[in-house]
Design a protein that fits this description.
The chain is α/β, with parallel strands linked by helices. The protein is 34% helix and 18% strand.
Length: 929
């Protein structure tokens, strides 16, 4: 279902693109009425999916067959449209008469769109017929319990690593607070939520604390009557006489009658109700109105995989279960294998290795423990080689069935986003910005209101994280997720579901493309993360490949644009010839290594390009200003031409979708440039003097969040937009006394001064400035005296100082309670700064607060003093060049260059440091005179 939905949404994006093409593609010819009709049919089917998102896991053959037909029809229509557009664009730029080819292509487009409309119409009629016969499966598991009941069996549910949670939850259940409270346990499938709740529920203290206890497990589908009946049957077991003389609960036809009976039964009694494995808010809303608040300490304990649900039902501080660490994992595994006995010494090393490969998931550890307990010890090495397969194949795939519930219950719009994780190798740290850009380019995200597609994508990712399907690796300094990954078992589930839907082909699964079945539903996405693809046959196949991803320069490919002419996504780490890449007329996303220089004729062909990322120089023609579909352009050095003067001021093309532009050399911050990029969020620029580049115009970028700026010092006004959250400055030499232009920014959270970005010996911030700053790094700046207190940086969490003449950190920083860490790089007075940092930490502890983590990151230092007047510009070959110093640090090369100055007045210390003291450092100075 996820693949069919993705195909439909992608089709609507393509239709929108041809209905509103870039200015220089207005010549594209098509039947607008028929295309609009196709768009309406696609929207109808998308809305159907959203309204009838089945959670049955695809058990209905008729629905599955229709989904396959929908996907094939949508992909086929999109292929015909883009193939026709490609032919028209090639014809427009060709000196050869291609009118016959264009006419044939137009006929195919017209016929293909007509056929797809008919197919969609037929599918609509069949969906309506099937819908009334499909009944959602309902399954509610209940277990009768009472204060005098038989306890829930713990059996082999050994609990490791959650003792603190156990104590805290028991405390929350038994606190003196009289109002009814909801307490939630949250975590991914298989992490031990039910096991922890069971241990809490069976504690004698809890048994005696409540008059009535009931436990029931809610399935993904249910009715109000089933829930109320289940509760009543359990609660009535607390009084056998009442059960024998009470009315038959099954005789109630009205849900309100059942609810009122539940309310009457619980009224005046202290009760504990456990709602295990909840999936949505509806179950809670059905029963909460019938649960009396007896003002006697009654409690509701909920287990769920969904963090958002825990918050929605009123749980203030959900207990979030994390994966076990390596030691806890080994403890649990060894207990599962040997119970109370000790593991033989000779098996501990391989046992710990197996435990580590379970990635901290208790369910996986329990399953593997059962496997190893029944296996001969000589077979442990085979389990160690492929732990994931051993878990997946054990016990009728019990583990995978539990995890698959999370996928089956996903909203339809999240399924293709989740399946896309199959494209990434296991244990791969995924850059969030890259992931969301790929989702957008693939066409997975449907436009909604005034939000950008990236903002919606961020919401999608947060939803997957809150559902405990995706794990957070690193956070940005501003708190947003920077990198994420997926647990090995969920990655395995993802690949299984992706293969089932023919959603993506993983390179490590097939060595040759021609091994795939030549069917209409073959994958249109190829991902190489270990396979060798040399020698593949060049036989054309349908549907065409639309996405090509690789993740290692060691992966061998024979990629050519001729092989994949309709490719939309190219994300590779190899260096490809620019003429090959730029033949991809339908490309939306291009990321590769090497430099790219685009001519006007080539760039004008790329009618769909959204994202361009290269790791070298990017030379762009002026036609870049006529590409409103652009969203992200990144390169080490971007040569951006001035926008051409418009023939009519009212016809200026705005790049309203452009959000990322970095790093632009010799950036011209003119009003003409700034007005054309009104929605820019991330900007990196290298410019000359401040005064000559009109940097006051930066204040017109009202949505800019991240700015990195390197410029030569000079007088002139500079204005930063109030929207900025991150600001990194290099070489600007802004006087400390003029720092209010930065301190007054109301949303600034991250600030970096590097390489004389600020100048002067003394900094006294003004009050009510830097009010939201969380991270401050000052490096290689003129700063000797710093006078500040907690009112200046009230939210500061991390302070980093390096290469300063500063002698001490203001002692008043003791009162900045959010301050958690002080990092001290090499400074002239390093010992004094470290001493003051440690003193601040000690004073904090004396006041009863947590201390501050003080880090000294310098292991070794290489200092170079270049005297004034020494000519470093003459190279060994006698030619004049920029003066430079080259420091080789292991395999890394770092340089310090003073450009355009044959005899530099360079009398500063150049200090290079590296945290890895095992790397050798060598120095090379260019020839001197």
């Amino acid at each position: 279902m996820g693949a069919a939905y993705a195909a439909l949404v992608s089709l609507t994006h393509t239709i929108d693109q041809i209905l509103n093409p870039p200015p220089h593609h207005q010549f594209i010819n098509f039947d607008r009425d028929r295309i609009n009709c196709l768009r309406k049919k696609a929207d109808f089917l998308i809305d159907y999916f959203l309204e009838n998102n089945s959670n049955t896991g695809g058990d209905h053959k008729e629905i599955e067959d229709l989904e396959t037909r929908i996907r094939f029809a949508a992909e086929g229509a999109e292929y015909i449209i883009e193939d026709n557009v490609m032919n028209q664009i090639l014809a427009a730029g060709s000196e050869v008469d291609r009118s016959v080819e264009t006419s044939t292509s137009n006929n195919l487009l017209s016929e293909g769109v007509r056929t797809t409309i008919q197919e969609f119409h037929t599918i609509e009629e069949e969906l309506v017929k099937i819908k009334k016969y499909v009944q959602a499966k309902i399954s509610i598991t209940t277990e009768a319990t009472s204060s005098s009941r038989a306890l829930l069996p713990i059996g082999e549910n050994t609990m490791v690593g959650f003792d603190d949670h156990l104590i805290q939850i028991m405390g929350a259940l038994s606190t003196d607070e009289s109002n009814i409270r909801v307490i939630s346990i949250v975590g991914m499938g298989g992490i031990g939520k039910t096991t922890l709740a069971t241990h809490v529920y069976n504690k004698p203290f809890i048994v005696q604390h409540f008059h009535v206890c009931a436990w029931f497990t809610v399935s993904q589908e249910y009715t109000e009557k089933e829930i109320l009946l289940g509760l009543l049957r359990q609660i009535n077991n607390t009084n056998r006489d009442e059960q024998e003389t009470g009315d038959g609960d099954d005789d109630y036809d009205d849900d309100d009658q059942l609810g009122n009976k539940l309310h009457k039964t619980l009224f005046g009694r202290k009760y504990l109700i456990v709602m295990d494995d909840m999936w949505d808010i509806k179950a809670w809303e059905m029963i909460k109105r019938f649960l009396p608040d007896n003002n006697n300490g009654s409690r509701i304990l909920v287990t769920t995989r969904l963090l958002r649900l825990a918050t929605d039902i009123g749980s203030c501080s959900p207990y979030q279960l994390n994966l076990l660490d390596e030691e806890q994992s080994w403890d649990l595994l060894s207990q599962k294998i040997y119970a109370e006995k000790c593991c033989p010494v000779e098996l501990e090393e391989i046992g710990r290795s197996i435990a580590k490969k379970c990635r901290g998931l208790p369910l996986a550890l329990a399953v593997i423990g059962g496997v190893l307990a029944k296996s001969k010890t000589e077979n442990w090495k085979y389990v160690e080689e492929d732990v994931t397969s051993a878990v997946r194949n054990q016990g009728d795939e019990f583990c995978m069935k539990i995890l698959s519930l999370s996928y089956n219950h996903l909203p339809i719009y999240l399924k293709p986003c989740f399946l896309y994780f199959a494209a990434f190798p296991e244990d791969f740290d995924i850059q969030v910005s890259r992931l969301i850009r790929l989702w957008v380019a693939e066409g997975f995200i449907r436009k909604c209101g005034h939000k950008s597609l990236e903002e919606i994508g961020e919401e999608y990712l947060k939803n997957l994280i809150d559902r405990n399907l995706i794990l957070v690796d690193k956070l940005e300094l501003t708190g947003e997720v920077k990198t994420c990954h997926i647990h090995d078992l969920l990655s395995d589930l993802c690949r299984i579901e992706a293969q089932k839907d023919n959603f993506i082909l993983i390179g490590e699964l097939y060595n040759h493309l021609d091994m795939l079945p030549n069917t209409e539903t073959r994958p249109t996405r190829l991902s190489i993360n270990g396979g060798k693809w040399k020698g593949m046959k060049r036989t054309p196949y349908r549907p065409p490949t639309r996405s090509f991803l690789s993740f290692s320069s060691r992966d061998s490919t024979d990629y050519t644009a001729r092989r994949f002419p309709l490719l939309r996504v190219l994300d590779v780490v190899e260096k490809y010839p620019k003429d090959e890449i730029l033949q991809l007329i339908n490309s939306r996303y291009v990321s590769c290594t090497g430099s790219i220089s685009m001519s006007s004729s080539i760039l004008s062909r790329l009618w769909s390009l959204q994202t361009l990322v290269v790791d070298r120089e990017v030379i762009l023609p002026s036609e870049i200003w006529q590409m409103p579909q652009l969203r992200h352009v990144e390169g080490d050095s971007i040569i951006l031409p001035d926008p051409p003067p418009p023939d009519d001021v009212h016809k200026i093309i705005l790049l309203e979708n452009l959000q990322t532009l970095s790093t632009v050399e010799d950036f011209k911050c003119t009003e003409a440039v700034i007005k054309r990029i009104p929605n820019l969020k991330k900007l990196g620029i290298v410019c000359g003097t401040i005064g000559s580049n009109c940097l006051r115009n930066l204040g017109l970028l009202h949505k800019l969040k991240v700015l990195t700026m390197l410029c030569s010092p000079c007088g002139g006004e500079i204005v930063f937009p109030n929207s900025l959250k991150e600001l990194r400055l290099y070489g600007c030499k802004i006087p400390w006394e003029e720092m209010s232009i930065i301190g007054s920014l109301p949303n600034l959270e991250v600030l970096v001064f590097f390489g004389n970005a600020a100048t002067g010996q003394k900094w006294i911030p003004n009050e009510r400035e830097f009010t939201r700053l969380k991270y401050l790094w000052i490096n290689q700046c003129e700063l000797e005296i710093w006078e500040a207190d907690n009112t200046h940086f009230p939210c500061l969490e991390i302070l980093r100082l390096g290469y300063l003449n500063l002698k001490e950190i203001p002692s008043e920083f003791t009162e900045i309670l959010p301050l958690q860490k002080i990092c001290v790089d090499y400074n002239r007075n390093n010992d004094l700064i470290l001493a003051s940092a440690n003193e601040i930490s000690e004073q904090r502890e004396n006041l009863g607060y947590d201390g501050i983590q003080v880090l000294n990151t310098t292991f070794g230092v290489l200092k170079i003093l270049v005297k004034r007047g020494i000519n470093l510009a003459v190279g060994g070959d006698g030619h004049i060049g920029d003066p430079y110093v080259v420091i080789t640090n292991g395999n890394q090369v770092e340089t310090h260059v003073v450009a355009n100055d044959v005899n530099p007045e360079w009398d500063d210390d150049l200090t290079i440091w590296h945290p890895n003291q095992s790397h050798p450092i060598s120095l090379y100075l260019s020839g001197t005179s």
